[in-house]
What does this fold into?
Amino acid sequence: MAKADLSENVETQLGRIADALDRIAPDPRPKIAINSSDAFVWDPGTGGLKPVPKVNRVPFGLLKGIESQAKALLSNTQNHLDGLPANNALLWGARGTGKSSLVKAVHALVNSTLSIDARLVLVEIHREDITTLPRLLDILRNQSGRCIVFCDDLTFEGMDDGYKALKAVLEGGLEGRPENLVFYATSNRRHMMARDMIENEQATPINRGEALEEKVSLSDRFGLWLGFHHLDQDTYFAIVEGYAASIGISLENDALRAEANEWAVTRGSRSGRVAWQFIQHIAGEQGIKINLPD
It folds into this structure.
């Protein structure tokens, strides 16, 4: 084979290899314009952030019975936005007591008077994607704006090792947590662990104390703990009445309370979520469209 022919053949083969590599290479990481919105959802499949045009939330002023928790989270969030020291926050407690609603309401409140470029960005990561949190933080670390990374209903089950990734990210590692973000999580459990995970460790004869300590110490990585509990009747009624007044429901107060109490009895609990479900029921009966103020 002539030398020229050999060179041409090698060049052709190299070209084919390069084309094949281009086809199997992952798509380039999408560019993220973090100042295009103040709320996003992390998509680990694409490595991008999906803007949320309208966040599903309740106005801060309508959250009743959690005043102390609201004050603490608002102060922590404002400190973070102002570039002051702020803690990761764990909001734990009973279902439907306003944990995730408070996070979203506080985010809206601190942004209410700011331009889009100056706003605090809320980025939600789903609990099943928590092992991809390091990738998300690498992206946000290089952004100029300040962020809250938010995971709702964060609980670890069975042999789930996702808690190890979260524990390492929150304060561990050489780089540590990016200065421009805090991590907020809600959970129905104080230590975010299923009871059987803890009990299984207690029953393990080898290094059971160390294994148990590793699991429950995850919650120690959150500097701010806020507990949420079931409501008493007066607070439940106050929430119902606040929603009713905001939406424009036409019903005498005594009748409203009586129906709200019956609704709570049928559900077996009193909570902000139950109050909201009751209000949606009454609004539907009265033909009222719900359009809460921001």
